From TrEMBL:
This is Uncharacterized protein DUF4993. Gene3D superfamilies: FAS1 domain. It comes from Sphingobacterium allocomposti. It comes from the Bacteria. InterPro entries: Adhesion/Biosynth-related (IPR050904), FAS1_dom_sf (IPR036378), FAS1_domain (IPR000782). Signal peptide: none annotated. Residues 36-243, 581-738 form the FAS1 domain.
Length: 742
C-alpha cells in the first residue's frame, strides 16, 4: 500500500513539473500581446476598408494576408472603392468579378515591407540609396495570352508571352526570357523625399494627373491618406484610389490605334519576332494545366529596350525601383507624312530601308530612363539627344507599368534626320560613306551647334576609283591606278583620311559660293584640324588633286540641314604622298622667287637626296614650310645670318644654314591666312643650346599672315589665294626671313 501511495505522489509531482515547464515554454514562445495583427485583420481593426477586405476575400488572398509574410499593401479605403464601383457601373462589391478583384489586390500588393522612411529609397546591391526610388514590384503579372501573329509568313493563333529581358544574353542562356521571372508589374508613386532628391517639382506629377490635389505622398494618380499602418506581416498605406494593373508600353501601343502606324508598320514589322520557348511552355502547362506551344514576343536587340519587358535593365536585381523606360511616339497623322516626305525621299518603301537606319529612327523615340516633364532637356536617348518637346507638344501622357508614355504631335527633332547627316543616312547611294562616317565622325557632323559643309561621294564613285566593300567578310579593298591591290586595314586607313577631307567646319557658310569664287579652307573641325583644300570657280583641289591635275567638281544642287549644307561631287579629294623635299622642289620650279632658298635646302646636310626628304620632317604629319624669297635670302646673307655659298664647307656656315632652314619649318600645324586666331605661336624645328625648341609668334588675319621672330621682327607671307599644298604640308613664300638669333 505504501508503494502505491509513493508512486501516486511521484506521478502527481511529475505532472506538476511538466505542467509548469509547458507554461513556461508557451509563455516564452507564444505570440506577444503587443504584436500588431496580420494585414487582413489590421484592415478590419482600422475600420475604413470593409469594401477592400471583401475584394481580398473574392481574390482569394484573405489567408495569404492573415499569415506570415513581409508585404507592403497600398489599400484603398471605402470611399475609394465606392468611387471605383460607380465608375465601372457595379452596384455593390459583390458584382465585381473575382478576376478583377484579384487584379486590384495583387496590383496593390508590393513585395517587402516599406515604411515611408524607406519608400523613396532604392535598394541597391550596395545598400540603400536615399531619395532614388519611385517604383516597386507588385505581386501582379499578366502571364500568357492568345494572339494572331505571322510566323514565317503564315498567320497563326498562338499563345504569346512577353520577353522579360532586353534581349541581351543572361548567363549564357536565352537572351530574352529568364525562367522564374514572371515579369511582375510595377506601381509608381511620388514621395516628397524623391521629389527633392531629384530636383523635381509637383508639376512633374500633376502633368500626368492634372486634377490631383497637393500631397507629400502620391500613389497612382491618388494620394496616401494615412501611411505606415503597421501589421504583423508588413505595412499598410491607405490610399484614396483603386488601381487596376497598368499596361506596359507594349500593351499601351497595342490598345491605342492612334499610334498604329508606328506600332504595325515600323515596330512590329521590322523589330518583333515570336520565338518558341520550351521553358515558357512548361510554365504555361504548370499554371493552366493545358499543354501548348508558347512563343515569346521578342524585340530586336538593335532597340534601346524591349517595350514588353516589365523589368528595367536588370543590371541590379532591384533597379526597377529607381528607373523605367520612356517613349515619345507621334500620332499617325504626324508620322505618316514625315515618313513619306522625309524618310522615304530616296526609298520607295520602308522594306528597302536598311534595318540599322530603321533602328536609328525608332531609337530616336526611346529613352532608357524615366523622363519627367522637367527633364525633357536633360535626359537623353540612345543617340544622346534630349527630348526636343515642350509640354504643348504632348497630347497623351501616361504612367504605365514599366515607364512613361508620351503621345506627341510632332516628330522628335533628331540630329540624325535634321542635320546634314540626313542626306547620307537616308540615301542608299551613299551607304558606304555612311559606314565610314559611323565608324569615326558621326558625332561630329550631327552636332546641330556647329555648321558644316559636306562633300558627298557616292558608292558608284568609290567603285569607279577602285574601292570595294565585301559585306560578307566586312572588309574593304582598293585597286590603285597601277593595278596594285591594298588590303582591308590599309584601305580603311586611307578612306578614313580621305573622308576627313570631305568634312569642313564652315561657321560662316564659307563655301556657299564655291562655284563662283576662289579660296582655301582647312578641313575637319577647329578642335582637330584636317588638311587644307582650295577651290577656284567650282574646281576643288586637295594636294593630291593638284598633283594629278584632277579637280573635284560639284554635281547637282546643294542640299541643306539645320547645321549646314552638302555638295555632291564627281571625284574624291585626294591626299598627296609627296615628300617635303619633293614639294619644295616643285614649288621652286613653279615660283622662281623662292629658288635660292630651295638651293640652300637642297645642298644642306638636312636634305637626303636619295629619298628626297628633309631631316626632321616626318611624312604624314602637319607642317608649315616658310620659304623666304630671293630678296629675303640676299638680305640674310648681307646681315651675316647666311653664308653666301649654299654648299659651303665651313662648319659655322653649315650651322647657320641648318639653323636658318629649321627656323622656317613650323611643326604640328598648318597655317594659312584664313583669319584663324587660335594659333598664337608655333614651334619650329630649330633648337637653342639647351635643346629647347624655338618658336615664332603668329598673327593671322584674312589675307595677311605674319610671323614675329626672336628679334621681334615681323615678316609676312606673299599672299596668294592659290595656296601651295602637299602631304599635310602648307608652303608659303615670305617677303623676309626669320632670324633664329636673339
Amino acid at each position: 500500500m505504501r508503494i502505491y501511495k509513493l508512486t501516486f505522489h511521484w506521478v502527481v509531482f511529475a505532472v506538476l513539473c511538466i505542467s509548469c515547464r509547458k507554461e513556461a515554454f508557451d509563455d516564452y514562445y507564444s505570440r506577444p500581446d503587443d504584436l500588431e495583427s496580420p494585414i487582413y485583420t489590421r484592415l478590419e481593426e482600422e475600420g475604413r476598408f470593409s469594401h477592400f477586405r471583401r475584394l481580398i476575400e473574392k481574390a482569394g488572398y484573405m489567408q495569404t494576408l492573415n499569415q506570415a509574410g513581409y508585404w507592403t499593401l497600398f489599400a484603398p479605403n471605402d470611399d475609394a472603392v465606392h468611387r471605383f464601383l460607380q465608375e465601372h457601373n457595379y452596384a455593390t462589391v459583390e458584382e465585381v468579378p473575382d478576376a478583377v478583384a484579384e487584379q486590384i489586390v495583387r496590383y496593390a500588393l508590393v513585395y517587402n515591407a516599406f515604411q515611408t522612411n524607406r519608400i523613396a529609397d532604392y535598394q541597391s546591391n550596395l545598400g540603400w540609396q536615399e531619395g532614388m526610388g519611385f517604383r516597386r514590384r507588385t505581386a501582379y503579372y499578366d502571364g500568357f495570352r492568345k494572339e494572331k501573329v505571322k510566323i514565317n509568313g503564315t498567320e497563326r493563333e498562338i499563345i504569346v508571352g512577353a520577353s522579360n529581358r532586353n534581349n541581351v544574353t543572361v548567363n549564357f542562356g536565352t537572351p530574352y526570357y529568364v525562367d522564374g521571372d514572371n515579369n511582375n508589374k510595377y506601381v509608381t508613386y511620388f514621395h516628397e523625399k524623391y521629389r527633392q532628391f531629384n530636383s523635381l517639382s509637383a508639376d512633374d506629377y500633376s502633368f500626368f494627373h492634372p486634377s490631383i490635389s497637393t500631397s507629400n505622398f502620391h500613389f497612382m494618380g491618388g494620394s496616401v491618406a494615412k501611411a505606415d499602418i503597421i501589421a504583423e506581416n508588413g505595412v499598410i498605406h491607405e490610399v484614396d484610389v483603386v488601381t487596376l494593373p497598368r499596361p506596359s508600353l507594349d500593351q499601351y501601343l497595342r490598345e491605342n490605334e492612334e499610334y498604329s502606324f508606328f506600332r504595325d508598320s515600323v515596330l512590329n514589322q521590322f523589330f518583333v519576332t515570336y520565338e518558341y520557348s520550351p521553358t515558357a511552355s512548361k510554365t504555361y502547362e504548370y499554371r493552366t494545366g493545358q499543354v501548348a506551344e508558347v512563343y515569346i514576343k521578342v524585340y530586336d536587340p538593335l532597340l534601346a529596350f524591349s517595350p514588353n519587358n516589365e523589368n528595367f535593365l536588370k543590371e541590379e536585381d532591384n533597379d526597377g525601383q529607381r528607373d523605367g523606360y520612356s517613349m515619345f511616339i507621334p500620332t499617325n497623322d504626324v508620322i505618316v507624312p514625315w515618313i513619306r516626305n522625309v524618310f522615304l525621299e530616296h526609298y520607295k518603301t520602308l522594306n528597302r530601308v536598311p534595318k540599322g537606319v530603321l533602328a536609328d529612327f525608332v531609337n530616336t523615340m526611346l529613352w532608357q530612363s524615366a523622363v519627367w516633364p522637367s527633364q525633357f532637356s536633360t535626359k537623353t536617348n540612345l543617340h544622346e539627344e534630349p527630348a526636343r518637346f515642350t509640354k504643348a507638344d504632348i497630347i497623351d501622357k501616361q504612367i504605365v507599368s514599366n515607364g512613361f508614355f508620351y503621345g506627341t504631335n510632332k516628330i522628335q527633332e533628331s540630329d540624325l534626320f535634321n542635320t546634314v547627316y540626313r542626306h547620307v543616312i537616308l540615301d542608299p547611294e551613299y551607304s558606304l560613306m555612311l559606314m565610314l562616317l559611323e565608324r569615326e565622325h558621326k558625332r561630329l557632323v550631327i552636332n546641330p551647334g556647329t555648321k558644316f559643309t559636306l562633300f558627298l561621294f557616292s558608292n558608284s564613285l568609290l567603285n569607279r576609283l577602285g574601292y570595294s566593300y565585301n559585306e560578307r567578310l566586312n572588309e574593304w579593298s582598293w585597286i590603285d591606278r597601277n593595278g596594285n591591290t591594298m588590303g582591308h586595314g590599309q584601305t580603311q586607313t586611307r578612306l578614313a583620311r580621305l573622308l576627313y577631307s570631305h568634312i569642313i567646319e564652315t561657321p560662316n557658310d564659307e563655301l556657299a559660293n564655291i562655284n563662283n569664287t576662289q579660296g582655301f579652307i582647312q578641313t575637319g573641325d577647329r578642335a582637330l584640324p584636317g588638311e587644307f583644300i582650295k577651290w577656284k570657280n567650282g574646281n576643288i583641289y586637295a594636294a593630291g588633286n593638284e598633283r594629278l591635275q584632277e579637280p573635284v567638281r560639284i554635281i547637282g544642287t546643294a542640299k541643306f540641314g539645320n547645321n549646314g549644307r552638302v555638295y555632291y561631287v564627281d571625284n574624291l579629294l585626294e591626299f598627296s604622298n609627296e615628300t617635303a623635299g619633293e614639294a619644295m622642289a616643285r614649288i621652286a620650279a613653279e615660283n622662281p622667287n623662292v629658288s635660292r632658298f630651295w638651293e640652300y635646302v637642297s645642298k644642306s646636310p638636312l636634305y637626303v637626296a636619295n629619298d628626297r626628304v628633309i631631316t626632321g620632317v616626318a611624312g604624314g604629319s602637319l607642317y608649315t614650310l616658310l620659304m623666304p624669297n630671293n630678296e629675303a635670302v640676299q638680305q640674310a646673307i648681307d646681315d651675316g645670318v647666311l653664308p653666301p655659298d649654299p654648299a659651303t664647307g665651313d662648319i659655322v656656315g653649315k650651322f647657320q644654314i641648318e639653323s636658318f632652314i629649321r627656323y622656317h619649318i613650323l611643326t604640328n600645324v598648318n597655317v594659312a591666312p584664313d583669319g584663324n586666331q587660335d594659333i598664337l605661336s608655333a614651334v619650329t624645328l630649330a633648337k637653342n643650346v639647351d635643346d629647347e625648341s624655338l618658336t615664332v609668334n603668329v598673327s593671322n588675319a584674312v589675307g595677311n599672315l605674319r610671323f614675329v621672330d626672336r628679334k621681334g621682327r615681323t615678316v609676312s607671307t606673299v599672299y596668294t589665294p592659290d595656296l601651295y599644298l602637299s602631304d599635310r604640308i602648307v608652303l608659303h613664300e615670305l617677303n623676309g626671313y626669320l632670324n633664329y638669333n636673339n
